[in-house]
C-alpha cells in the first residue's frame, strides 16, 4: 500500500496553473460502460477478508483473516483489504462504503443486475462495521493488522503469518474522524437497504446514531491516538471536522432529523477545497446537502448549494476560478500518489450534481462562464473515458477491461500463484524475489481494479514496484461505480 499524503492547498494551487485547456466538445470513443460497471463491482470480491461465501466469483481468492480480533478476544472477521496489502483500515474502508452506498442510492435503478452485487459489496463492509461497533463497551474497533509489519511482507492473504494487531478508539483515545466516517457509512447503507431489508436497515441506522454520538462526545483525531498504525498510511490530514460534517449530513438524510443541520451549523465547516477523497470530505458533504436546496427547494440549504458550486468552479478547466491542473491528455491531475483516487471521487460528485441540476433544469455561473448540466457531464465523461482507454497511451486503467490494461498490478494476491496452483505457503518474504520483482504479468487477473494511474505526463510504466501508479484501492473503485452507471443509462 502506498503512503497517502495530501499536501497543502498552497502546493495544489501551485500545481494548478497549467497552460492546457482541452475542449469539452472533442469527439470521444464509445465505451461499454455496462461491462465496466460490472467489473468495477466485481473487484470488491477480490478484496474480501474473512470466510468467503459459496457464490464468490473471484475463484483465485480463498478464506483469510479468520482469527481477526482474537488478540482482543473479539470477532473482527470480514471487511476489506484496502488496496494491495493485507491490512484492514477502517477509515478508508468506511469512505469506500459511504461512496458505494451513495452511488447505489443515486443510480440503483439504472444498475440493472449489478444492483444486487452492489448491495452485496456494501453489506460485506457493514456487517464488519457492526462487529467493530459492538464488540466491546466504550471501544470502537478501527483496524486489524500491523501495517508496518505487513508492508515488509509479500504474501497472499490466505498465507498471512504476521501479527494481526487490533486497533480501537475510545473516550481516552478518541477518533472523531474514523468514527464520523463509519457513522456516515452506516447511515448511507441504511438507506440502500431500507426498501429491501427493513430490519437490517434499522440496525445500521441505530448503530450509525450510536457511533456518531461517540464521535461527537469524544473529540480528537485517530491519527493522534493510533500513531504509527495510522500514519503515514492513512493520516487524517484534514482533521476531524469534515468527518463530523459528513457524518451529520448522512444522518440528516437518513433520519430527516433537523437537529443534525443545527449541529452542522455549529461546526463552521465552510472550507471549499478543490479535491475530494477518503481524507477530505467537505466537497462531498456540500454536494449532499445541496440536494435539499436544489432538488428540495429548501432555502435553509442554499449556502451548501453555493459551496458545492464553488467547488465545481474550482474543477472546471474553463472557469475563471479553476485551481485544477489537467494533463495534456485531459485528465484531472491533483497529486502524484494514486491520482486516480481523486479523479474518480471528483467525477462522482460531478455526475451527482449534474443529475441534481438536470432534475430542475438548473444552471449557474462561474464568473462569466455559464454552467449547465451538460457542461459538468461532459467533463465527467471525459474523465471516465480517459480511465477506460481514451488517453495518449490508449490504455485502460481498469484491469481486465479492454485489450490493453495494467498487467503488473501492485497487489499481493494477484501477483502470487493461487492456492490451487501452489498449495504451499510462501511465507512473509517468500514472494518478493520470484514474483514481486519479476517483469512477468500477474498470474491472477484483478478484474475491475482501477489502479493509481498515469503521471502528470500521461505516462504509465506498468511496473509492480511503482506502487503510486500501479496499486489499486477500494476507494478508487467505489467512486467510479456511480459515473459508470450514470453514463451507461444515458445510452439506453
From TrEMBL:
Belongs to the glycosyl hydrolase 9 (cellulase E) family. It catalyses: Endohydrolysis of (1->4)-beta-D-glucosidic linkages in cellulose, lichenin and cereal beta-D-glucans. Keywords: Carbohydrate metabolism, Cellulose degradation, Glycosidase, Hydrolase, Polysaccharide degradation. PANTHER family: ENDO-1,4-BETA-GLUCANASE. The active site is at residues 410, 462, 471. Residues 33-483 form the Glycoside hydrolase family domain. This is Endoglucanase. The gene is CEL3_1. The lineage of its organism: Eukaryota, Viridiplantae, Streptophyta, Embryophyta, Tracheophyta. It is an enzyme of class 3 (hydrolase). Its EC number is 3.2.1.4. It comes from the Eukaryota. Gene3D superfamilies: 1.50.10.10.
Amino acid at each position: 500500500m502506498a503512503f497517502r499524503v495530501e499536501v497543502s492547498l498552497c502546493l495544489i494551487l501551485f500545481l494548478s496553473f497549467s497552460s492546457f485547456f482541452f475542449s469539452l466538445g472533442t469527439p470521444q470513443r464509445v465505451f461499454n460502460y455496462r461491462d465496466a460497471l460490472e467489473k468495477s463491482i466485481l473487484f470488491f470480491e477480490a478484496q474480501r477478508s474473512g470466510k468467503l461465501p459459496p457464490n464468490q466469483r473471484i475463484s483465485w481468492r480463498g478464506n483469510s483473516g479468520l482469527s481477526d480480533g482474537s488478540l482482543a478476544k473479539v470477532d473482527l472477521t470480514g471487511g476489506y483489504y484496502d488496496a494491495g496489502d493485507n491490512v484492514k483500515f477502517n477509515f478508508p474502508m468506511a469512505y469506500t462504503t459511504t461512496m458505494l452506498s451513495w452511488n447505489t442510492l443515486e443510480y440503483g435503478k439504472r444498475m440493472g443486475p449489478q444492483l444486487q452485487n452492489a448491495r452485496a459489496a456494501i453489506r460485506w463492509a457493514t456487517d464488519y462495521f457492526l462487529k467493530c461497533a459492538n464488540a466491546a463497551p466504550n471501544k470502537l474497533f478501527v483496524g486489524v493488522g500491523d501495517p508496518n509489519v505487513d508492508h515488509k511482507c509479500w504474501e497472499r492473504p490466505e498465507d498471512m503469518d504476521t501479527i494481526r494487531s487490533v486497533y480501537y478508539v475510545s473516550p481516552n483515545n478518541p477518533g472523531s474522524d474514523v468514527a464520523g466516517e463509519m457513522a456516515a457509512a452506516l447511515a448511507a447503507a441504511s438507506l440502500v437497504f431500507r426498501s429491501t431489508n427493513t430490519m437490517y436497515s434499522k440496525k445500521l441506522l441505530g448503530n450509525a446514531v450510536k457511533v456518531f454520538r461517540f464521535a461527537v462526545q469524544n473529540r480528537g483525531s485517530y491519527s493522534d491516538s493510533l500513531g504509527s498504525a495510522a500514519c503515514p498510511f492513512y493520516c487524517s490530514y484534514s482533521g476531524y471536522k469534515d468527518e463530523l460534517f459528513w457524518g451529520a449530513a448522512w444522518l440528516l438524510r437518513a433520519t430527516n432529523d433537523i437537529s443534525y443541520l443545527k449541529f452542522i451549523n455549529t461546526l463552521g465547516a465552510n472550507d471549499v477545497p478543490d479535491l475530494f477523497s477518503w481524507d477530505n470530505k467537505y466537497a462531498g458533504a456540500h454536494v449532499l446537502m445541496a440536494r435539499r436546496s436544489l432538488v428540495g427547494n429548501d432555502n435553509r440549504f442554499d449556502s451548501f448549494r453555493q459551496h458545492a458550486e464553488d467547488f465545481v468552479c474550482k474543477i472546471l478547466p474553463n472557469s475563471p476560478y479553476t485551481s485544477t491542473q489537467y494533463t495534456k491528455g485531459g485528465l484531472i491531475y491533483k497529486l502524484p500518489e494514486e491520482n486516480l483516487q481523486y479523479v474518480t471521487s471528483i467525477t462522482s460528485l460531478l455526475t451527482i450534481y449534474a443529475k441534481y441540476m438536470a432534475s430542475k433544469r438548473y444552471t449557474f455561473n462561474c464568473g462569466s462562464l455559464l454552467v449547465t448540466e451538460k457542461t459538468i457531464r461532459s467533463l465527467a465523461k471525459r474523465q471516465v473515458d480517459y480511465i477506460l482507454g481514451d488517453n495518449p497511451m490508449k490504455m485502460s486503467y481498469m484491469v481486465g477491461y479492454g485489450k490493453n490494461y495494467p498487467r503488473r498490478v501492485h497487489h499481493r494476491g494477484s501477483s502470487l500463484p493461487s492456492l490451487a496452483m501452489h498449495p504451499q505457503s510462501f511465507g512473509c518474504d517468500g514472494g518478493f524475489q520470484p514474483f514481486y520483482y519479476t517483469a512477468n504479468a500477474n498470474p491472477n487477473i484483478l478484474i475491475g481494479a482501477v489502479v493509481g494511474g498515469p503521471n502528470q505526463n500521461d505516462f504509465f510504466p506498468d511496473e509492480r514496484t511503482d506502487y503510486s501508479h500501479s496499486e489499486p484501492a477500494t476507494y478508487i473503485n467505489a467512486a467510479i461505480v456511480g459515473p459508470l452507471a450514470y453514463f451507461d443509462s444515458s445510452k439506453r
